Amino acid sequence: MTFDPPYERYAPLYDRSGQMRFAVLVHLYLRDLLRQHPVGGRRALDLACGTGTLALLLAADGWEVIGLDRSAAMLAEAAAKAASADEPVRFIHGDMRDLEGLVPAAMFDLVTCSYDSLNYMPTEADLAACFRAVASALAPGGLYVADLNTRHFLEHDWGACMIQEYDGYVQIERSHFDPASARNRMVLTGFVGDDDTGYERFDELHVEYAYPSETVTALMERAGLRVEALYDSFTLQPPGPRTQRIFWVARKPCE
């Protein structure tokens, strides 16, 4: 089977399929986290920003926001939403493993990376590169908030097959977890059209990797970030053995 690049064909359907709801939840959750872990400024960088929902919500709250993503198709959706909302968000095409020359160093009071974007990193070296880039982008005292799906979720809770139907769009997700590599391969098949004129099919392969929380914490600390807390998804409770998603909160120490 030949696959389209991830998010290329899916980008214009992403919000329609309900995915933007996660960004809305993160936006609300950030308010709780920032009360527990305050920052001194209002400059934010949203990594793997996708269609820009979280970046636009932060901008509406008065943050000065830059969003960055590897997918030009997703950024096109984000730019269109920003123009419609008349929010001054700047979107940049780039890789969150290397931010040099893309964003100013030591500028941001908050850096976010949500919706299991870090699970797409295939190696610990890639994760480490992400964390070093974040440490460089954060201002002293700035905060990094990021999440990853846990192995428990990828192995036991992510269903093998899911079918979702929307107006003019049908989506099928088929997933397989390999215990040896701690890798989940999800084939996303979409059918766009209608019963009268027919449907056009596309297939995308999305691969996520599970990492032990101890490994992630160690890599953040090694990159120069001080981990302040790990939370069970959307709570202020510590993760447990059946936690599906962990949020990390880490700070760049003041010089």
Structural account:
It is a single chain. This protein has helices at 11-14, 20-36, 53-60, 72-85, 124-137, 151-157, 213-222, and strands at residues 43-47, 64-69, 90-93, 108-113, 138-149, 161-166, 169-178, 183-194, 198-209, 226-232, 245-251. The chain is of the alpha/beta class. A seven-stranded mixed beta sheet has the order 3-2-1-4-5-11-10, with helices on both faces. Strand 1, helix 3 (53-60) and strand 2 form a beta-alpha-beta unit.
Low-confidence stretches: none
Q: What spatial form do the alpha-carbon principal axes imply?
A: globular
Total strand count, please?
A: 11
Summed up, the helix count is 7
Question: Short description, anyone?
Answer:
With 255 residues, the chain is of the alpha/beta class. The protein is 29% helix and 34% strand.
List the helices and strands and how they pair.
Layout: H1 11-14, H2 20-36, E1 43-47, H3 53-60, E2 64-69, H4 72-85, E3 90-93, E4 108-113, H5 124-137, E5 138-149, H6 151-157, E6 161-166, E7 169-178, E8 183-194, E9 198-209, H7 213-222, E10 226-232, E11 245-251
Parallel strand pairs: 1-2, 1-4, 2-3, 4-5
Antiparallel strand pairs: 5-11, 6-7, 7-8, 8-9, 10-11
Helix pairs in contact: 2-3, 5-7
List its salient traits.
globular; single chain; 7 helices; alpha/beta; 4-stranded antiparallel β-sheet
